[in-house]
Amino acid sequence: MKFGTLSVATILALGMAYAGGDIAPVEPSASPAVEEKAFWEFGGQAVLYYQTIDAYGGSDLFKQGSSVADAGLQLKATHKDLVGGVGVGITIDGVATLGLEHSIVSNVMQTANGIKGGWIAEAYLTYSIGDTMLKGGRMTLPAALSPFAHSESWNVFENTYDAALVVNTSLPDTVLVGAWVYANNTNGYAQFHDGPPTTPSSSAPHNFLKTAIGIHNSPRNEMGFIGGEYANMADFENTNDDNGVFMVTVQNKSIENLTLTASYYYADDFLGLGDALNIWWVDGKYTVSNFEIALQGGQVIDGALPKDTTAFGAKISGHFGNVGAYIAYSNVDDGTTGIFNVGGQQTPLYTQMIINEGAIRSDNDTFVIGAHTNLFGGTLGAGYGTTSGDVSGYDYDEIDVYYTADIFDGGNILVGYVNMDDNVRADSNNVVRIVGRYRF
Question: What is the pTM of this model?
Answer without folding.
Answer: 0.85
